[in-house]
Write a structure and sequence with these properties.
Length: 285
């Protein structure tokens, strides 16, 4: 089956494209600008992966209400076409739909009611309700704060600050599960494999890489790896008012994904050495 990926250019879309290329799966990539004139015949024998909102909201807290309503309307038309053609639709979201409860002690489960505080969280929740509301075809995959070797994410920003020689002050209380974009791409690819074989799974699923950590604990690991490639690396310090996870995404329970798709969590630490090295080598050039 073909895959139709809706996303602007990003580290995540690059990772999904590379993963699907390895699986020799045909791929069509669309931007939001393509949707009004999109040829819906491409949906026949296809699966849609919609990652544009997630990519956009990783670097901003939502969009203007007028634009949000426009995007919802375009998704509504696309989802109706998917329903007519029996085309599965995966919407990529994140745990900001729970960010009114970021200090709760338990992992957020798939069946919990959303409780969003941020604009991005509220708008993602609206997208989710639209996708799930289309009978039979909608899947939502929520994830954690994404990290990548490219600029504009928590990992890259931390390393740039450290390389500038400034002391980096980080929060050591709020826990999160940083999720490398390549790990999320692995999960999306695994879901596509099974959906293309007729797996009847629908509804809401969670995936974040394993290993909850505060921003300070994460930075400690980053510093340890970075010191192998560059010197000096600035000191880090813990403080209640320090930088925390960006975006603020609580830890997610991933039991349903394992139960229905058999996809296991992998630790973010396993991905970090290669990512840190790529960033350090890029900065040193």
């Amino acid at each position: 089956m073909n895959v139709v990926l809706i996303s602007r250019s990003s580290a995540l879309s690059d990772s999904i494209r590379n993963q699907l290329h390895l699986r020799e799966r045909p791929l069509v990539i669309l931007s939001n600008e393509d949707l009004p004139s999109f040829d819906t015949t491409l949906l026949r024998n296809a699966i849609v992966v919609d990652g544009d909102a997630l990519v956009c909201f990783q670097s901003c807290d939502g969009v203007e209400p007028e634009l949000h309503e426009q995007l919802l309307g375009e998704r509504r038309r696309l989802l109706q076409a998917c329903r007519e053609m029996d085309t599965p639709y995966i919407f990529l979201s994140d745990g900001r739909v729970f960010d009114a409860n970021t200090e709760q002690l338990h992992d957020c489960s798939e069946d919990e009611d959303t409780a969003a505080f941020s604009l991005a969280g509220k708008q993602l929740a609206e997208f989710e309700r639209l996708v799930i509301g289309v009978a039979g075809q909608g899947l939502v995959l929520r994830t954690g704060p994404l990290i990548a070797a490219q600029e504009g994410n928590f990992l890259g920003d931390c390393l740039v600050t450290m390389r500038d020689g400034n002391v980096l002050t980080l929060n050591d209380a709020l826990m999160g599960c940083p999720t490398p974009v390549s790990d999320l791409a692995r999960v999306v690819s695994g879901m596509l494999d099974q959906l293309s074989c007729g797996a009847p799974c629908r509804g809401i699923y969670h995936y974040n890489s394993s290993g909850a950590a505060s921003a300070y604990e994460f930075a400690e690991v980053v510093c340890a790896f970075a010191s192998q490639f560059v010197a000096p690396v600035a000191d880090i310090a813990a403080a209640d008012a320090g930088i925390t996870w960006i975006p603020k995404v609580p830890v997610l329970s991933c039991d349903q994904l394992l139960q229905d798709f058999g996809i296991k969590q992998l630790p973010w630490r396993a991905y970090l050495p290669r990512m840190v090295r790529a960033i350090c080598e890029g900065v040193s050039k």
